[in-house]
Amino acid sequence: MIKVGIVGGTGYTGVELLRLLAGHKGVKVHAVTSRKEAGMPVADMFPSLRGWVDVAFSTPEEADLKSCDVVFFATPHGVAMAQAPELLAAGVKVIDLAADFRLKDPAEFQKWYAMEHSCTDLLAEAVYGLAEVNREQIKSARLIGMAGCYPTSVQLGLLPLLEGGKQLIETNTLIADCKSGVSGAGRKAEVGTLFSEAGDNFKAYGVKGHRHSPEINQGLSAIHGAPVSLTFVPHLTPMIRGIHSTIYARIKPEGRDTDFQKLFEERFVDERFVDVLPAGSCPETRSVRGSNIARIAVHRPGNGDLLVILVVEDNLVKGASGQAVQVMNLMFGLPESQGLEVVPLLP
Q1: What's residue 189's pLDDT?
Q2: 3-state DSSP call for residue 29?
Q3: Which positions are annotated as active-site residues?
Q4: 42, exposed or middle or buried, with CB in 10 Å at 0-12, 13-18, 19+?
Q5: What is the pLDDT of residue 48?
Q6: In 3D, which of 322, 183, 178, 317 has the Cα closest to residue 240?
Q7: Which residues of the chain have pLDDT under 70?
Q8: Which domains does the chain have, with CATH numbers?
Q9: Contact indicator for 311, 296 with CB cutoff of 8 Å
Q10: Using CA of residue 25, residue 31, residue 34, residue 38, what is the dihedral sign?
């Protein structure tokens, strides 16, 4: 059994990790940390876990995280990089769901997250946690910087078009028009996510620049093997869970004869957690709620030169905790889908 620790178990990604790991036959949750709630049974805070999780919150010092096989950080940015070196030195694998190990350039990290990176020596070693792209590297990694929720949907949506240096689309005019439910903002008191503010409302944010933009461009450029530039505009929608990304790509002359539906189907045919829908489909966020599945549809309106790729995912599962469990499975040689065979919830 894999002994698991979770640092920051009181947020949405933390409780989602607990939900998924509770049904995972290969792990035992050893510790869940929270300084504020230390001593409180986890199931008292999250009654949905009654009968499934019997540990109590503890401080990081009391938790003895060094005795774990792997520690997940479901924390604000900056926490993992402060604690990761000591855990790694003790032989513990680290999976960070925040941004501490996503960006390879520490100057970019400081620019977008307003803090200096405290262990830049680990950035080169950290593997980006998007299994469909970095599966082999993840298997031998000891430090993972998980992909963000929006970046997951955008990179999966463009992967078949860019991978291996393909010259099918223009790579400097890409646009991702993305919408997320309010849980993406985290479990905290904030005016913009109050029900009376977010309900019956729809708005863009971060139009001048969003911290997921450099991550998306970094990831797409790595996939393509050459610089890629994408304009990313996120929106807040009045729903709890879900991301819907509409991606626009201009087809190059040399790509006009491509069967894009076939291209996507063949690329993802063996990917358990990516579902390419039949031609003409429009995926809905509710079709992936609570699951680790991303659903993709490819459109070419009027058989013209513009591709429209639609991607939906649950931001807390495939966009965060679910794919963190997927990555953990790879790191420990378990079946990749173990603990993640969850049918989406409907309605």
Answers
A1: 75
A2: strand
A3: 149
A4: buried
A5: 96
A6: 183
A7: none
A8: 2-125 (3.40.50.720), 150-315 (3.30.360.10)
A9: yes
A10: positive
